[in-house]
């Protein structure tokens, strides 16, 4: 839905519940006041006793045009203040912000632009955490439109989003009241069920989620994630979702989120910390949820450890073992990295911390740009060591990140490989495998092991060397040369073209090239047709990724002499030469008229 034509219309109503948060109000309110949209700020004071109410009234007196304060008796949760804020809102959109958090300066401007461009009912803006964990999976890239069934947006059930107010009013979407936690889950689930268009702004830090240093916020309280209370609470949003979404793939996709992040999450670290009686109570509550909502479609969408849990809810000891496996750190160390022909041999040590056994180890190569593409290489074990032989010819073009996978009791745990390694390990030399350049490397940020197939982020080493040049008919420069890549001869079909590139403007002219046996090549570039300027010569190859270009190295004695000729009242001159420092083939091209020649003589 596009913006209205009314210049006085409010774009966004920012609703802020506030309870005893005076120390954070200045930062929060200032971050909203600087937003470059037509806005109103509705702050609902929920019975504050620390001076927050007085500070809010001061803001309202100084910003009468956009700050409105509503005072309530303490309600004990954020649900009622947010609902009151919705009733007072007049904007086309509503955004919810907690008083201890703050917005990026361009947050609302970017989200409103996204919403107006796409007619969005919900716009997710990237959330970043400061001492608190922020959701990440749905913010990998910005998107004009995402579908619930094909995305991870439903993983984020907080209310820190932009909502179209008309949708909230039409469907009477409100927060749960009288709840310590979970009121926003009810609201967000209901909103997702009615949203026709959902958009994501992922290229800007929109919302800053802040942990209070004194640990006084509701979500930082020890009882805020009591497992039994959480499992009881989550029933209502699941039932709400099921009333709107019929059985089928979409419902199974949404239920997957609830089982993975709400139900089976209670069988992890909190389960280990509980006593035997408490563990039985937690398992019983999870089993009750499974009996009502766990379907074959949910099962096939879950990871290995949650599938194991679903089948072990009557076996507390096994649930404990699974929790220990999940919580154990994958200890791994790279001890060797070398080529054996076209096989990359990776050796190391891997185990689950605190657990003396496993059922197998494998090295997994996962495509960085296609999460569904992976190669699993079983490793041979000898004592605590492993060895995997990777056939790199099985890898498609792209970046492949290496992980170690340790399996125990049907659960597979992963860890990136390479950051922890013996001090004498260096990256193996690049290798030409068939027509592909294969370049193992350690990432700059974390030192993890990856393989670049095709030269996407790592420069392909190669040498193109001039053997001789000579002039031919049509003012063509006959060029004979030889090329090698990673110390090997590339296949003839990899040699693509000869390229002249003008040094100042970046303008390019390409010429055909003929590849000959033994890594030699020949070209007949029409150098006389080049525009005036200084042109540098390259040989371009296709090595499985972006075009790889190599400057053509030259010695002065292999370069043909300058040539001049007249044509159409012009004097043309071309001077091929080897550059002074690095000895690379270039050419200076000039065109002069009789008048310009006379001026030079008389100068």
Labels describing this entry:
603 residues; alpha+beta; 11-stranded mixed β-sheet; 15 helices; TarS/TarP_linker; Glycosyltransferase; Nucleotide-diphossugar_trans
Supply the helix-strand structural class: alpha+beta
- Mean pLDDT, to the nearest integer, reads 93
Q: Helical region count?
A: 15
Low-confidence stretches: 1-5
The major pleated sheet works out as:
11 strands, mixed
Shape: globular
Helix content: 25-40%
Q: What fraction of residues sit in β-strands? A: 25-35%
Please report the distance between the alpha carbons of the first and last residues: 69 Å
Number of strands: 31
Rg, please? 33 Å
Organism: Actinomadura luzonensis
Protein name: Glycosyltransferase
Domain Glycosyltransferase 2-like: 13-132
Domain TarS/TarP linker: 230-323
What does this structure look like?
- This protein has 603 residues and is an alpha+beta fold.
- Helices cover 25% and strands 35% of the residues.
- Strands 21, 22, 23, 24, 25, 26, 27, 28, 29, 30 and 31 form an eleven-stranded mixed sheet that branches.
- Helix 6 (183-194) packs parallel to helix 8.
- The radius of gyration is 33 Å and the shape is globular.
- The protein starts with 11 loop residues before the first strand and ends with a helix.
- Mean pLDDT is 93; it is low at 1-5.
